[in-house]
Design the sequence.
């Protein structure tokens, strides 16, 4: 690598090394909060998502009026209004929204399991070799969905804790990545 290329790479790395460190710190704090208070985190995330939906819906409305000559005005207008309505529902009623979404997801997992079990029977009758993998997939989905439905409060908390653990690991990896980038930039600058 030429001296000029090394200097450019070093300068670029010195300029951006802090971005993954900052992202990692934010993700790590969010992960720790999820581990400490899983159920409160769910309500807070729903509220934040609701506020985002309202703001984004308003921006879609503004965009629809700005681009109304291009033919998508009505679609963007309706989409913006629907997004605002969804955001308002999420902000005003976060707990019922979480409950509805949770049950929707749990019933979806059960339905996927049932359909996979049915598909495995069809595959078995057709003498397909992979019928047992489909059956295993269906049984795991069905049982997981039943466990979710059996104790929803604990299920939500467990899911949030798992996401919190993932966020903590991701945050640490991002911080290490940024600090490694900084060390590489310094090493290249010394060359």
Sequence:
């Amino acid at each position: 690598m030429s001296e000029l290329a090394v200097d450019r790479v070093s300068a670029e790395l010195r300029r951006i090394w802090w971005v993954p460190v900052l992202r990692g710190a934010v993700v790590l704090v969010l992960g720790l909060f999820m581990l400490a208070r899983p159920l409160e985190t769910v309500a807070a995330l729903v509220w934040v998502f609701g506020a985002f939906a309202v703001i984004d819906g308003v921006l879609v409305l503004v965009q629809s009026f700005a681009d109304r000559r291009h033919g998508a005005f009505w679609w963007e207008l309706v989409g913006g209004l629907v997004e605002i309505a969804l955001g308002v529902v999420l902000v005003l009623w976060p707990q019922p929204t979480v409950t509805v979404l949770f049950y929707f997801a749990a019933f979806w997992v059960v339905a996927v399991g049932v359909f996979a079990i049915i598909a495995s029977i069809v595959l078995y009758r057709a003498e397909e070799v992979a019928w047992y993998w489909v059956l295993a997939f269906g049984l795991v989905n069905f049982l997981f969905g039943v466990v979710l439905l059996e104790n929803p409060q604990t299920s939500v908390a467990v899911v949030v804790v798992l996401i919190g653990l993932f966020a903590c690991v991701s945050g640490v990896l991002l911080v290490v990545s940024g600090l490694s980038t900084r060390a590489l930039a310094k090493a290249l600058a010394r060359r």
Summary: The chain has a mean pLDDT of 86. The two ends are 11 Å apart (CA to CA). Residues 3-190 form one domain.
